[in-house]
């Protein structure tokens, strides 16, 4: 059986979505019948960090692979001789003894000497360069160019991203694979009482929830303006819970702007910023919510939307092509990206018509949809990995 080396892309909890992305893919592949699976091992260069990025899926991964070049003079000379003898490329001699045939979603080191499948999350730098600095645009363009040129195959998360790929890399389209990831729950999702977790954070029984990192493209400000409109209208005690990292890798101090707006408009008692929290607690709050809100100006394939779909939780989302693709066949509301008034109207309507808390019927429907999506996700990833291992087959 072929083996894939899975490489961590979020070691410091700066991009939780990237971490969860790999977890969901690992679970999707592990759930496939034996004849359809490909063996997965997490691969580490040097050592496994204390905060194991794969702790939640450790039981369904193969044995971790930890490699490093020898440090002693004798060891280096012996390795050099063996590399010449066997014609090894790059660092392949360190990985092939462990049976690793391909890496995903990035190589663990420069010049690894083994094929890899690169995950290109989205084309925000191409479609919405106004949402980031010119320097960051250049960095992303350079990074993606390098990996698309070097990788054996490229994984994209949506047909929307594939359309962008066709514009940016038209000569590489035959190596692009769409793998729509889905949120695959583990036992931890169901252990906590949603009401108890809400009480733990001193939240009311009913609230909307948005689970996004605090960066500008996530568009928290439109929701805050909608909350201000709802407060001015009076008559409803509507609350909004915000989970997600307050670390802004774009260095634009998004969280500072959010807090200033809340203070200026006296919304601090109705908008609850909880920051990054344990995954099980976040899921419990999502289950307790009235609905999930996803107002982003740009997305590749939203993790929180997938979480909501798995739980059968209603979603109010910005009107993006990728959101319509992601929520296809579901009766969800799609709203203008910047029209706080329409968001306020939709939130008020949802508040009056939807119940808070878990719904056994909706969660059952979500699980039924997930079963189909999980199989397709796993098979799509395996096809991409095998195409990299056997490019001529």
Keywords:
393 residues, Rossmann fold, 2 domains, four-stranded parallel beta sheet, alpha/beta, three-stranded parallel beta sheet
Largest sheet: 4 strands, parallel
The number of E-state strands comes to 13
> Structural class of the secondary structure composition?
alpha/beta
Gyration radius from CA atoms, angstroms: 22 Å
- What name is given to the CATH topology of the largest domain? Rossmann fold
Q: Helix content range of the residues, please?
A: 40-55%
CATH class of the largest domain: Alpha Beta
Q: What oligomeric arrangement do these chains adopt?
A: single chain
Assign an overall shape: elongated
Average per-residue pLDDT, rounded, comes to 92
Low-confidence stretches: none
Strand content is 5-15%
The neighbouring-strand order within the major sheet is: 3-2-1-4
How many domain modules? 2
Tally of alpha and pi helices = 14
Distance between the termini: 16 Å
Output the helix-strand order: EHEEHHEEHHEHEHEHEHEHEHEHEHH
Tell me the CATH architecture of the largest domain: 3-Layer(aba) Sandwich
């Amino acid at each position: 059986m072929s083996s894939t080396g899975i490489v961590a892309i979020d070691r410091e909890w700066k991009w939780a979505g990237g971490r969860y992305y790999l977890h969901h893919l690992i679970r999707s592949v592990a759930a496939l019948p034996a004849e359809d699976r490909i063996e997965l091992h997490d691969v580490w260069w040097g050592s496994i960090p204390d905060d194991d990025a794969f702790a939640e899926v450790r039981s369904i991964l193969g044995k971790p692979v930890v490699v490093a070049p020898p440090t002693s003079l004798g060891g280096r000379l012996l390795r050099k001789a063996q590399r010449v003898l066997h014609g090894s490329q790059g660092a392949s001699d360190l990985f092939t003894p462990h049976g690793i045939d391909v890496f995903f979603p990035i190589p663990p080191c420069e010049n690894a000497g083994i094929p890899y499948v690169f995950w290109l999350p989205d084309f925000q730098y191409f479609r919405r360069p106004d949402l980031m600095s010119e320097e960051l645009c250049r960095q992303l363009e350079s990074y993606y160019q390098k990996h698309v040129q070097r990788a054996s195959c490229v994984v994209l998360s949506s047909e929307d991203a594939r359309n962008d790929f066709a514009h940016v890399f038209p000569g590489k389209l035959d190596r692009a694979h769409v793998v729509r990831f889905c949120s695959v729950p583990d036992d931890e999702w169901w252990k906590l009482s949603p009401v108890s977790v809400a009480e733990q954070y001193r939240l009311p029984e009913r609230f909307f929830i948005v689970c996004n990192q605090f960066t500008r493209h996530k568009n928290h400000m439109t929701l805050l303006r909608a909350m201000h409109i709802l407060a001015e209208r009076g008559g409803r005690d509507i609350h909004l819970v915000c989970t997600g990292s307050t670390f802004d890798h774009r260095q634009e101090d998004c969280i500072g702007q959010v807090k200033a707006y809340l203070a200026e408009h006296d919304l601090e008692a109705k908008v609850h910023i909880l920051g990054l929290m344990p995954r099980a607690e976040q899921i419990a709050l999502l289950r307790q919510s009235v609905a999930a809100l996803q107002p982003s100006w740009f997305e590749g394939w939203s993790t929180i939307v997938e979480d909501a779909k798995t739980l059968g939780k209603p979603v109010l989302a910005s009107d993006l092509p990728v959101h319509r693709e992601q929520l296809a066949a579901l009766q969800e509301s799609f709203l203008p990206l910047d029209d706080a008034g329409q968001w306020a109207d939709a939130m008020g309507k949802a508040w009056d018509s939807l119940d808070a808390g878990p719904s056994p019927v909706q969660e059952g429907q979500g699980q039924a949809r997930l079963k189909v999506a999980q199989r397709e996700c796993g098979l799509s990833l395996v096809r991409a990995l095998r195409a990299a291992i056997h490019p001529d087959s």
